[in-house]
Amino acid sequence: MRTIMARNPHDSFSFSRRYFYWKKKGVEDEGDEEMVEILNFNSSSKFEEKEKGKTEEINSQMRSLSLGSAKAPRKKLSVMAVSKLRSALALGKSRTQFTSGLGTKVVGTLFGHRRGHVHIAFQEDFKLSPPFLVELATPTSILVKEMASGLVRIALECEKRVQKKGFKLIEEPIWRTYCNGKKCGFAMKRECGPEEWKVLNAIGPISMGAGVLPGPGNGTESDGELMYMRAKFERVVGSKDSEAFYMMNPDGNGGPELSIYLLRV
Fold first, then answer.
1. pLDDT at residue 50, as a whole number
2. Are 228 and 111 in contact (CB under 8 A)?
3. Which residues on adjacent β-strands are paired with residue 105?
4. What does each C-alpha distance from 62 to 38, 66, 67, 75, 125 come to in angstroms?
5. pLDDT in tens, 56-112
6. H or E element: which one contains 187?
7. What SS3 state is found at 197?
8. Residue 213's closest CA among 258, 204, 122?
9. 225, 114 in Cβ contact below 8 A?
10. What does the pLDDT average to over 188-210?
């Protein structure tokens, strides 16, 4: 509110002075005579019109500002909504790229020479490089005997360390191996080199099955025939420190004959 100042000490434009009668006692005559001062409204009418015009102008400006402020939040909210949607899409795309190595359905291959060690590889597609490839200390012949006896549970455990924060579980380099509850040494993460690619390409687009591939030759250094088993696996991510791969039976009956667990403890 704009404060209305008087032009001189004897002239006030306050509301109380305009619309009320004020009684003044004379200095010289101390009797009961009272002098009534009536404000001249004609002299102040121009000022009132001017003030009224200013008040209307201020009101119009306030209305325009209120309308603008009413529209501004909607515009601001719409801009914020679009930005949040874009950020969500970008985050979803980045997460898809981050976890694109393996999905919920993967191709699992176990292979190894008869007198060699077992290799386990998981691929999104048989044509793509396996993001998870480890070599177990377990001999291939021992694993074959275990699988012939019934259900097989392979657990791979690694240590949880603070400096490895943000490290994906399938990228751990060293694992302790357990097969049906029995400790079987350690497993090492391997890169898919020419020899591994040769095996995976030889199996080709086989979705499920087991067999034997001929060895590299008849020399004494040969580890014998190469045995393999391939199947579809369901990948279940419990947390950043636990994953499980369950072999899917084609007929859908019975539980999985082979399960592989990855644990960070």
1. 59
2. yes
3. 234
4. 36, 6, 9, 20, 66
5. 766 666 665 555 544 444 545 566 666 665 665 555 443 433 344 689 999 999 999
6. strand 182-189
7. helix
8. 204
9. yes
10. 91
Q: Give the pLDDT confidence of 19-37 residue by residue, as tens digits.
A: 444 444 444 444 444 443 4
Residues 218-257 have pLDDT tens digits of 544 567 789 999 999 999 999 999 999 999 987 766 666 8
Do strands 226-239 and 105-113 pair parallel, antiparallel, or not at all (unpaired)? antiparallel
The pTM assigned to this predicted structure is 0.61
Q: From the CB of residue 196, how many other CB atoms can be counted at a distance below 10 Å?
A: 19
In SS3 terms, 122-171 reads as EECCCCCCCCEEEEEEEEHHHHHHHHHHCCEEEEEEECCCHHHCCCCHHH
**What would the 3-class secondary structure string for 41-105 be?**
HHHHHHHHHHHHHHHHHHHHHHHHHHHHHHHHHHHHHHHHHHHHHHHHHHHHHHHHHHCCCCCCE
